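task queued by scheduler; priority normal; single chain, no ligands, no partner chains; default sampling; output format set to structure tokens
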Amino acid sequence: MINTNAFDYINVLDKAADASWLRQEAISNNIANATTPGYKRQDVAFESELKKALGNCVHESMDQKVANLKASELAPVAYTDYSGLSYRLDGNNVDPENENVMLAENQLKYQGLIAGINQEFQNLKAVMK
């Protein structure tokens, strides 16, 4: 098999799209449980994990950083957000208006990631012609 870095960006974009999908599920679950007493909102951390994995070396190009990235080790992390904070007396910390804004933001991010993946495949297709 030929060893190539042609799919490095596609792999990272794929991981980011997976994380966005998980965040979509978490936000939807938060909205569904907005009136459940004691429920604590869930979220997914990916961007911070990606930043950590890429490192902060200023002497490497982004291409080098992405090539050195081990996509198999890059995974979104689900967590309970502000578990000690509560907006209401029933212990729930979900703000439905904020969740709806985050839902719209995440949908736009997901669409952008899918467009990026499609563009990377278009670039590969153009090179193969």
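post-processing summary
- Residues 8-128 form one domain.
- The radius of gyration is 18 Å.
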